[in-house]
Structure formats: structure tokens, C-alpha cells
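Researcher: Here's a chain I'd like modeled. Treat it as a single chain, no partners, no ligands.
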Amino acid sequence: MKSLTIGLTDCSKYDLYNNWILNYHPEVKTLRLSWKDDSFSQISACHGIVLTGGEDVHPRFYDRPEWLPYCHADDVNEERDELEWKVLEYSQSHELPVLGICRGLQVANVFFGGTLIPDIPTWGKFNHSKMPDNTDRYHGVKVDPASALFRLVQEKEGWINSNHHQSVEKVGHGLIVSALSEDGVVEALERCTPGPHLSLVQWHPERMNDQQSPFVKNIRQAFFEACLSR
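Model: Modeled as a single isolated chain. C-alpha cells:
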């Protein structure tokens, strides 16, 4: 395999994502894309982008600034929002494959013109955040059998982890839902129009208990195949 450089957006659990990507193959390198330094200027070295999980997306980015009180006050970082906006602009204009995880799905949906539910329980759905003992919640997911995601995982249903309190409200332009939780929360998005590889998942494949699950290994494999084909 040729050497690949994958850009990962910075977050508090960066090492988890970094190790998950590096473990794919010894020829893979990573580049930390952070608002804390000038690392964005190095994005031209990247063959693909991983949008990592983390903070709430500020509601002003989807024209709902009045919803800020529904966000976690100590968990909003507008500098990160702005950096990831630039990363998405670059990835789309340069046709880089993108894998978005949890917050990565959310910020990408907003980038494409969608909106978010700022707090799932307040909007009348089950809690999708961590369990009381601080472990990931796990629940079922249903996959659209007509989707690209189904062609990857070859499963109409699956078992995934969950740790988020925001989710997709209106789907962004050019995107379509490919998986839903049992209570109707969007769990995956993909393109409905031609374009570079874009896989957006609400779960955390980098830390799922079953790393051999097709909802982990097949998604990572498809991302790397897209990076290699550039």
C-alpha cells in the first residue's frame, strides 16, 4: 500500500481516533488539524479527512443562536467550529474522502445546510448520551437497504455505541439518511448526489467493543479504499 496521510481534527480524545487510524496499516500517517496552531496550512498533504467527535456545534452556524441554552455551556468551541468549516470547504473543493464520527456527522450536516436538534431528550427522544456509570450506551440501528451504507455493511440492522445529546434535525443539501436508531434519531448520512467519498456516522467506531463488526471495520476499510483511489 502506498503511504497515506490522514488529517484528523483535534479533540479531547484525539489519541483514540489517531490509534484507530494508524492501526489500519504501517504505511498510514496522521496529521493533527487543530485551531490551536497553524496546522491547517498543512492540509494539502492529506489524502483523506476524519472529523472527530467532541463539543456541541454552536447553533449560530445553523441560524438558531437562540438555542445555545440547550447546549452544554462548557462544551462549545467556536474556534473548532470555524476550523472544521475550513477543513470541510477544502475537502469538498479538493475532492478528499471524509469520514465524520459523531460530532463529525453533525458539523458536516450543518456545513451542507442542515440543522441540529440541540438536546435530544428535550426534543422528546430517548437519551443517547453515556450511561450513568460513564460507559457508552449501546442500541440497535436500522439501515436503509437501498443505501451505500448497506452495500458496505451488508446488514439491515446492527448494534452500535452511543454518546451524544445532539442530532440531525433537517438533513443538509445533497445528503440522505442511511441509518436510524430504533426511536428515529439519525445515525448515518451519505451523499444522494455524485461526489467524493463521504461517510457520516453518529456512533463511535474507534471505540466500539466489537472491532470486527461491519459497522466498524467495513466503514474504515471503505474510507481507506477511497483515499487510495485518489
